[in-house]
Amino acid sequence: MQSVSSEQGRSAADTRGKHRISAELKRLEQEARFLEEELEQLEKMEKASASCKEMLSKVETRPDPLLPTTNGPLTPSWDRWFEGPQEKSGCRCWIL
């Protein structure tokens, strides 16, 4: 009687073990297919430097939407602050 129950226990364990191995094998096959598809996509893509150059040229031609656009100085007297020294002697600022 014990030999019959032990044989049933072994066959149940064998089928669970086979199922576990089969499930792991299917998962690995699926992962391999996913990686193969990803490699195919990478082979079809342009090189990164070409894509970066294209994006950079598009970004540089468009103004920044967060910065206000001005067509010139609103007050001409403000220009003197941003143009630098006007005299040949340079800036007469004293830093202590």
Computed CA radius of gyration, to the nearest angstrom: 37 Å
Separate helix tally: 3
State the end-to-end distance: 104 Å
Q: Mean pLDDT, rounded to whole units?
A: 76
Main sheet? none
Low-pLDDT parts are: none
Helix content: 55-70%
Strand proportion: under 5%
Describe the global form. Answer: rod-shaped
| Strand/helix succession | HHH
Protein name: G protein gamma domain-containing protein
Keywords: Cell membrane, Coiled coil, Membrane, Transducer
GO cellular component, one term: plasma membrane
Main location: membrane
Please describe the topology of this protein.
Blueprint: H1 2-44, H2 48-61, H3 79-82
Description:
- With 96 residues, the chain is mostly helical.
- It has a domain at 12-60.
- 64% of the residues lie in helices and 0% in strands.
- It has 3 helices and no strands.
- It has helices at residues 2-44, 48-61, 79-82.
- The longest helix has 43 residues, at 2-44.
- The radius of gyration is 37 Å and the shape is rod-shaped.
- The N and C termini lie far apart (104 Å).
- The relative contact order is 0.04.
Essential attributes:
3 helices, coiled coil, transducer, rod-shaped, 96 residues, mainly alpha, membrane
Brief account:
The chain is mostly helical. The protein has helices at 2-44, 48-61, 79-82.
